[in-house]
Amino acid sequence: MKNFSFYKGWMLFCYTLILTIYLFNNTLRANPNLLKLPNQQKQITGIITNGTIPLTGVTVKVKGNTKGTVSDYDGKYSITANTTDVLIFSYLGYKTLEITVGNRKIIDVKMLDNTTSLQEVTVNAGYYSVKNSERTGSIAKITSKDIEKQPVTNVLATMQGRMAGVEIIQDGGTAGGAFQIKIRGQNSLRTDGNSPLYIIDGVPYSSETIGSTETSTTTASQTSPLNSINPADIESIEVLKDADATAIYGSRGANGVVLISTKKGKAGKTTVTITASSGIGKVTKMLDLMNTAQYLEMRRQAFVNDGITVYPNSAYDINGTWDQNRYTDWQKELIGGTAQVNNTQLAIAGGSNSTQYLLSGNYRTETTVFPGNFGYNKGAVHFSMNHVSDDKKFKLTISGGYTSQKNNQPSTDLTGISRTLVPNAPALYDIDGNLNWENNTFENPLASLQSKGVIKINDLLANAVLSYEIIPGFEFKTNLGFTDLKNNEVRVMPSTMYNPAYGIGSSESILLTNTTLRQSWIIEPQLHWSRTFTNGKIDILLGATAQQQKSNRLYQMGYGFASNSLINDLSSANSVFTFTSDETVYKYQAFFGRINYNWQKRFIVNLTGRRDGSSRFGPGKQFAVFGAVGAAWLFSNEKFLKENTSILSFGKLRASYGTTGNDQIGDYQFLNTYTSAGTPYQGTIGLNPVRLFNPDFGWEINKKFEAALETGFFQDRIFLTTAWYLNRSSNQLVGIPLPGTTGFSSVNANLDATVENTGIELTLRTLNIDRKNFNWTTNFNISASKNKLISFPGLETSTYANNYVIGSSLNITKVFHYTGLNTQTGIYEFEDVNGDGLITADKDRKTVADLTPKYFGGIQNQFQFKNLQLDFLFQFVKQKNYDYIANVPAGSFYNQMAAMTNSWQQSGDNTPYQQNTIGTNGEAVTAFYNYRSSDAVIVDGSYIRLKNISLSYDLPLMMDKSLKCKLFFQGQNLMTFTPYKGGDPEFKYAGYLPPLKMYTVGVQLTF
To answer: Any idea where the TonB-dependent receptor plug domain is (predicted)?
Structure first.
């Protein structure tokens, strides 16, 4: 049998294919209509979604005629079309799609976000909403799409690195910790007078701390109420920055306004979304400390330098009492644990075109990196309902949220001791598993964990908005809000936290309690009228505000208990002391208005004003008027540009000027007030005067100016915003020093000091690639700001002389100028400014170190390839920071940085660190503490950090198209690039746990 050649067979196939194509081509030339589809009318149906939920109200039209329909609340549509027709699907915020009908009768559509339609994005400006293209003020915005990609619990954490001009710093890595925020710099001399105003669904939310420094000791700052806001419930966050945007909030807008809008239900079939995730957290960066060999060599050298040849009995580390071959990495042992994080979210949403609803619940648990059974639990419930009457005149929105938190943490942060405990210290437990005291030579750090702090917070926020359109264009609206916060903090200090050898019993155990209750309500009736003319449109808003906030505080201590089992019962204490028991009431009323005129979508003028009344000021000073004017020119709408360029798609020049105020001074500060003495005298508890009366106590005033240019190129694929601002805050509310003979250290008054903040902000957004299956978007922002004290009469003779310098930033520190090491004596040396031969703080600490960041920002990249999405954000900061240095000189009974092994030992040594001492060399000890207060420890603290990364995959489920499944990975604080050696460069508090890096995986089901 003959074998068939593969080559001959392949050639035969090719010849046959070529002949077929040739014959088919000639046939088509003779009759070209063969390829045309029959042009028949038919009914086309389908479902329109965004990939997760059905979309209601999508416009569906046949291209070239007026035939059209809209999708219903299930996302379904039906339209008659021909085979050759093209259907156009359009919906605000999504890309317009064009699909040829062809032979299909069912066309399901997935709408894609229109990432380039920045001009059409609606921005919440508080009392009104405005298109991004038509706003005259400076407003930064992030949405739930950015928020839900971050495994965080505090709303401020979601904003880091994403908004120009908004500086946010995390106070620590302990669960439930707080954040600092500054919007365009520091305006007030008072550190507690720079917080922005928070508005949640139209309801002011107080950010004043609710904790006590004695009961919330684990964290670097007191308990923040902002932890009550569940990030998963947030739809968007807008930050108002300039006068045009903030003046309508009057006295409360000097430091900016943070508007938080929670999620609302959407019309469509009921959808259930379940999100579950689990993750771990670790400390971002450990210090490079000495090991046992390095540490003991340092100690031996210190004794040699001090001329001591016999080690004292208390030098357990070096005299042979402790094992000199033992090594323990105490950072790994005490703060190197792994925090476990679990989060579950359930949301049910849906409704008709007239009524929509949303109900969601969230529960989160988070353990700590410390040894022991500690943790943070947080549960939240959120509800929202929207209703509109059939005639579209009456509208009702109701929303509410309730959050419950329980934070069980050790009273002592072990970070500090983990950095100073010597590496050859004994084991933590003895052979029986009990705490090891090593024959009373060792203070076991785990003993401090017997002292615990428990914080319980319950927070309710409710809001209702009712509106009625009286006649077309004329609407009456009322905003109603209520908040109720209850904070209960308990710190126990049982006798078991001490070495049993001390003989301390429960009669010396201590219980500290702090209870804070805060309630507020607000009523805001408003009238809104708008009308469109041939060449323009006018909007007028008039409103009034009535608000009240009542706060109660009770801080007590119980001392001595019959048994430690009764330590949580204050009534069981042998002695009870009341340190604080007060009630404060804050009342506020205002009238506000806005007039906006838009002429031909080219020129826009916006006028806002507010007359405020506050109970925090004395007679004749309670009322003040604030206002602003903003203007914009949309030059891209000019004919000469529209007709002559295709590159520029959008161009706007805007500017604003106005005044805002600040009343963040606490209540009753203008009054002469008294507090209870707390202890009886001859059977009677007396009163102590704490404040002097000042009837001239008035408002701080902040004058703001901004100019900005917004440009879009190539259909907004490149969108650039550049803004320059100048803010001046005057009439500063501070304590004016008084002579001691008055019995008071100061009196609250207005100081004729002026603080200036100037800066430039740049925001760039680029759509790099936009294809059907792949797109890539980049968002970049950078802010460079400068803070300066312009004037301060009598500064040199005031108590603020060591804190501030005219012409310098408020965020400065005065330090000695380090001139180097004396190679002969091995002692640090400093500049003798006044030449008196002595180094003293008041005469020689004159060098000014500015700790204000020179610039900061972030760059975010978003990639989408089919069902795979990758999003990551790099945050960067250019700044100075304090280097880590131990509290005692090298050579003492404390561990030190490994770099300090390079210390001076003999005459002629040129080393970075002075000679070691156990503390008996007075000259070396003094030089060390001067060194800690010199510019030698002010180092480059700049960093670039992979702040957030999110990788998700929409799993295709062919068996059920109504079920959506998303798998995701999220990370926070994953990598940091920095020259800083003192730990985490973002962190500002030595001795407290730095921020954690988080790794989270999860799944989201929608059906």
So the answer is: 133-257
Q: Which residues contact 23 (CB under 8 A, 6 or more apart)?
A: none
CA angle, corner 764, sides to 759 and 767, nearest 5?
175
**pLDDT tens for residues 306-325?**
999 999 999 999 999 999 99
362-415 per-position pLDDT tens digit? 999 999 999 999 999 999 999 999 999 999 899 999 999 999 999 999 999 999
Between the two ends of the chain, the Cα-to-Cα distance in Å is 64
Rg (CA), the chain: 34
Nearest to 985 by CA among 868, 824, 876, 850: 876
- Domains of the chain and any CATH numbers: 39-110 (2.60.40.1120), 127-265 (2.170.130.10)
Q: How far is CA 348 from CA 269, 380, 402, 467, in A?
A: 10, 14, 17, 26
Q: Which residues fall within 8 angstroms of residue 39, CB to CB, at 6 or more apart?
A: 82, 83, 84
Q: What is the mean predicted confidence (pLDDT) over 500-510?
A: 94
Whether residue 482 contacts residue 471, with contact meaning beta carbons closer than 8 Å, is answered with no
Kindly give the residue spans of alpha helices, DSSP state H, lying in 289-406.
292-305, 330-335
Distance CA 496, CA 446 (A): 11
Residue type, 833: V
User: How far is residue 787's CA from residue 755's CA, in Å, rounded to a whole number?
Assistant: 7
How far from 599 is each of 447, 533, 570, CA to CA, in Å? 72, 9, 68
Q: Judge whether 283 and 993 are in contact, CB under 8 Å.
A: yes
Q: C-alpha angle with apex 242: 239 to 248, nearest 5 degrees?
A: 85
User: Which of 132, 128, 134, 124 lies closest to 630 in space, CA to CA?
Assistant: 134
